[in-house]
Amino acid sequence: MIYLDHNATTPVAPQVAAGVVEQMRSNFGNPSSRHGVGRAARAALEEARARVAALVAAEPVQVVFTSGGTEANNLALKGFVHAMGVRRVRFSAVEHASVRAPARFLASQGVDVAEIPVDPQGRVTPAALAQSLAGAGPTLVSIMAVNNETGVIQDIPALAEVVRHHGGWLHCDAVQAAGKIPLDWQALGVHLLSLSGHKLGAPKGAGALVVDKAVDLEPLCHGGGQERGRRPGTEALPAWVGFGLAAALAMEEQPVRERRWHELRRRLEAGLRRRFPEVVIFSESAPRVANTSFFALPGLDGEALLLALDEAGFAVGSGSACGRGEPSQVLQAMGVERELAQGAVRVSLGAESEAAEIEAFLDALEAVVSRLRRFAGVVGG
Ligand SMILES: Cc1ncc(COP(=O)(O)O)c(C=O)c1O
User: Fold this and answer.
1) CATH classification for the domain delimited by 2-7+254-380, as one of 3.40.50.1980, 3.40.1280.10, 3.40.50.410, 3.90.1150.10
2) What per-residue confidence (pLDDT) applies to 243?
């Protein structure tokens, strides 16, 4: 199987897996215990925290470990609104479900919630943001750093300036940005930032919310003082240690990976254009992370392509929401026609992706497309 779906999840690097196993074998203590076994576990926890903080150039004390990006996003929105007394939330029209759903939940509790539109490339413009904040009182704004489908990079520093100018607070879902582009807490200018371990080579079950020191959060669960009371419950030390190791590795290798991805994606998209002149590559003219290409072949169904490619030994993503046949909300927000959006396929590269895999993918896609078109021709009569 050739795996080209790294925005869904990534394999765990061997050295990270080895570190996790070692952690479970020899450092099983509870970080809250005061004896030596507990103190050793706490030291490992704090080392992991420092590594995750370094990934975004923040201070370790700002890092609240979670189970992943979904929990970090929920804690950011619900925890902030409940603790800070802010009654207005705005989020971009291309946010992940783990931002949209807690925002909807807050709306059901009487919070004033609305979407910020994006331009046809999927970007939030400072003007659109300013318009959505005009005349509003204190507002929590949520805008992702990088979109999981298109790979589009938002100009977070510029947007943060608009939010601050309006006296608001900015949460940034950086789940798809970490490890793909450099992230710097100070330069971003946000108040809350979400991360997920399994998107950058860590085991599942690890994420983090990085929090400005001036921000209070109401925890989602109650029952303990862990993570300075913000995320009670005994720490998932193996996963979080793995997150720390993967974060350090991703940071070290990021410039090299990014250069390779640029070359591989150039090869992929040139090959797509040569073999399928009708191909539409979404957000092509916007800044995108180098590992992601999201495209559609008019008249073909993305789900059918994904399944046929799977049978041929290639794992890619589609634009539909969890196989429910609904076209991508991201593409709809960008004003892409429903029929074209239905055909979207996402290729996302990983640390180990190679040129030979791209060539094999292009060959397989050509074969699959001609088979599906023949079949459609027969069925269509
Ligand atoms: C942009 C974005 N935010 C949040 C999440 C959720 O992260 P997790 O799978 O760690 O809960 C994802 C996962 O697909 C994502 O792509």
Assistant:
1) 3.90.1150.10
2) 98
